[in-house]
Structure formats: structure tokens, C-alpha cells
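This part of the workshop introduces the protein records we will be handling. An example says more than a description, so a record of this kind follows:
>
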Amino acid sequence: MKKPSNKDMIQSEWRSIAFSTALVMRMSGNYHLFCELTDAGDGEVFSNILNLVWESVSGQNQRIDFQKQLEKLELITPDPVEFDMYGVWPALDAAVALSSLLNVCERWDQAELDSIAILSRSTIEHYLEATDEDCVETHPLFQAEKACSEQLHAIISEQSSQSRPKVVAALKAAVNQWGVTNIGLEV
């Protein structure tokens, strides 16, 4: 069996980061809703940071200071101690997922990248617990998460011969088309 080349590894890395960026984009609506309801956080800063990651993944901007973006994100990350409402938790999960994404962009770490998908599913599980729903893998929110992940992987696979910007555009379009967050909130 042929050992993957550095080029193959780099191809795999940006595609994996693009997949996770799409998951974070899907979770971002939870953060934005929290900002709207509480006048806390900063949805514009969150979106700007996420857009910089998209630029990096698409290969259009390789001069991003991810450490600086992490510092900005830290300033707008909600503190659950300060809010007596459930919405702080999905917002915090979105911020943590974006933080993990920034860390991976700065220094490749497959385990940290994998944690983003795990965190997205965990957000769904906690939401279902908070709403007294059955937390089983057959719940429609879990099924939607699975379908979204499968569609994102399909886009990446089907567009394997396309340029990075075209793959990124297709992923962003898919997330925008769904119009709901991972916990089913309309964006």
C-alpha cells in the first residue's frame, strides 16, 4: 500500500477543516440567537472570525493571525455563570467549537478537529435533555445532524476535482440552505 504523500495529507487536512467549519457555521446560529436575546457577546465578531477561517480553508487568505482571532473570540465567549438561561450553553458550545477550529488552523490536530463533531452532537443531546425529550439517536435532531454530516461529506467527495474555493462555496451554500442550527433553531 502506498504511503500518503505530503500533498495528499494537505489535501485531506483542508477538506477535514472545511467539513468542521461547516459544522461550526451550522452551530453559529445558536450563538447569534443568544446575542440577540441577551445583548451579550458579539455576533458580528463571531461571524468575522468564522469568515476568516473560511478564507483560510479556501486558500484565499493564508496570512491570518489565528492567535489574535482566539483572543478576540475569548472576549466574546459567554460565561454560563453570568446567565440564568439555557441558551448560554449552545452559544458557549458554538464558541468552543470555533476556538477548536482556530487551534486546528494554527496547528493541525486531528483529535481536536474530531471534537467539533462530538461537541455538535453533545449540544443536541443536552438540548434534548433540557426540553425533556428522549435523548436517543433516533430523535429527528440526531437524524438531521447525521444527514447534514453525510451531505457535507458527499459534497467534499463529489467535488474532489474542484478548486478549494468551489468546494468551500458548495459547503457554505449547503449550510445556508438548511436554514437551521444543529438544535433546530431557524437561522
Remarks:
- The first helix runs from residue 6 to 38.
- The mean pLDDT is 92.
- Residues 15 and 157 are 9 Å apart (CA to CA).
